[in-house]
Sequence to fold (76 residues):
Amino acid sequence: MDSLQGVGKLLVIAGVSLAVLGGVLWGAGRLGLVSFPGDLRFGSESWGCYVPIGLSIVLSLLLTLVLNLVWRWFGK
Fold:
């Protein structure tokens, strides 16, 4: 039964984290923060490619911070 409770907590944390991340991205889009410095865009009129390197770095830092806080909160 303990393992099911652990999995349940993990799923709740993952769901809340995804909801918060979705809200942040939605809010950033509404504020016009579509691209970060370091993002690459290239292509022509018929095709295009967008590589969000700057956004990936920012999200990585934020998720690292959030996960460290969660692990300290649960004492693992």
User: Anything to note?
Assistant: The first helix runs from residue 2 to 31.
